[in-house]
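User: I'm writing a tutorial on reading structure tokens. Could you give me a worked example: one chain, its sequence, then its tokens, then a sentence or two explaining what the tokens reveal?
Assistant: Sure. Here is the example chain.
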Amino acid sequence: MSKYIVAVDIGGTFSDLVCLDTVSGDIKNVKVPSTPPTFIEGVMNALRKAGISPSEMIVFKHGSTIATNAIIQRRGAKTGLVTTKGFRDILEAARADRPELFDLSWDPNPSLVPRRNRLGVTERVDYEGSVVTPLSEQEVRHVARLFKKRGIEAVAICFINSFMNSEHERRTKEILKEEMPGTYICHSYEIFPEIKEFERTSTTAVNAYLGPIVDRYLADLTKELRTWGYKGDTLIIHSGGGVMSLDVAREIPSRTCQSGPAGGVVGGAYIGQMAGFPNVIIFDIGGTSTDLAVIYRGQPPMESGWKVEWKIPIRFPCIDVHSIGAGGGSIAWIDKGGTLKNGPQSAGAFPGPACYGLGGEEPTNTDCNLVLGRLNPETFLGGEMTVQPDLALKAIKGKIADFFGMTVEEAADGILRVANANIAYAARLISVERGYDPREFALFAFGGGGPLHAAEAARELKIPKVLVPQYPGLASAFGQLQVEIRQDYLRPLLQRAKEVDIARVNKAYTELEANAREALRREGVVEKEIELERLADVKYFPQTEYFTLPIPSRELAREDIDKLVQDFLARHEQEFGYTVPLEFADVEVVNARLVAKGPAPKGELKKHPEKGTAKEALKGERKVYFREAGGWVTSRIYDRAKLRCGATFDGPAIVEQSDSTTVVPPAVKASVDEYLNLILSL
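And here are its predicted structure tokens:
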């Protein structure tokens, strides 16, 4: 009998598997090293290690960094871009928001599509969608022949103002398919029909760049799963915190970027609600990076898009996750001015931290936690991975401690303090600067390194509570158990609110809903289970950025638009602390959006009301370095697997488990709730 829901999340360093038994409610978890460059071997290793039968799996949900890594490492397909003549340099023009404003030596990464492979053709549509200059089909065929000679594997099509009229893009795609059979081809209207020319071009180019790569990966993964014996559905996590079928993932591969962090945020929102914390700041430290997000009143934050790196935005609705280079493998270094820095460079999975003994010689956060006694070399990764404290000590001493004339312990503590300060600064950017008071939130710590740093980061932010889930190292994979089918649709409106054509707005939503119902039916969702949510993008008319706000799912009237304007003003006041009176600035309804959802098998947490005491989980004691306590202090060591509901204890203490380690500093109280979450009270 099929009973398991399985989710696998591939990270840069480790691949995590969570398996929920829908009959008993029990959870199995597995953590194995990732296996770049293909990563599929790591997925299969995790499935085999879990010890489940493929015939017992109900569904397989999968999130990965494959797409993101392909962009960062420039391993995507050889891509061409067809655009309106005279606009081939949109990708290079980009926006003026340099990440390093005063660094004159900064050299940005090259574009995904080299200039010689960005070709223009004669055509023009105006801002209302009227054809000004017909498409030159002869030029399109000439471009196709050039692309074939150059070995182009994928083509993106993006014409000026095509978001208002897709006729030329559709015809260009037809011609290219005739001339270049077997080539991956996509156009902007089917990917992202929005006004922003640079973002629309970038998103379409990214989609083409990733198309062949993601297609090959999914084909190879499916083949391996079939060989193993799994015949069920495979669902791919996307950036919006939902899942999509393999077919949809092949059509829109750019949506698979940010899938891992999105799953973690969904899981954090769910577990936080269950534990009684509707307001949480997500705090996920992996091997390479730290991901942060603010969840307010139980709702994951959504954004209209994100950037993989400068000049490469992707404009799909996504869970708003802020990432910084502060992971377990982040390298400590000294800049030219003699200042201690931490990250964003990372030792990654290979060679990894110095203590891995794989050739790494740079000190990392993992090395520091090991030297300070916070990590146990005998139980690292459940005892399945050997680490060498002497190599960590050597790296910290030679690279950092000797330079500053410090002891190794002082240097390691300083490195971690810099890392925690970086994390706290990033958390303030997404909380304080957006009108949220961190003191009204709990810090939800997960990832392999989150619980190691959580209490110190919470102190920096004056957050009173830290929530550590039962399996913190696998929380992203657990979150993927929760996600359901989600598709997002958009139709441009570009109407000032006081002059809005209600009939046109209603028609747009009606057409979007019809498209969504048809698409979800193809995904196997029955009509009665389809859930539709209407949204609208709203902004001040002269501005470019907008807020996405809910709008009633019925026939709209003038009063609904007036209410939408008031909602926009309230949101603007919350975000920026002011509004502009309507007599001085018009409000514009930019886009009609629709979120279409359908159920997919998902897991639920079960309560564990059986009471226990901390004494039952006590493993022993060891010396751990805490600067605030004067250095090395005797700390109790607890086995997380034996901590039951109601158990309480005080720091200094270390809680060990196979997928993570939780540090409980002096003067911090810890307790276990009925979902086996560990709650730290500062």
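What the tokens reveal: The longest strand covers residues 485-496. The mean pLDDT is 91.
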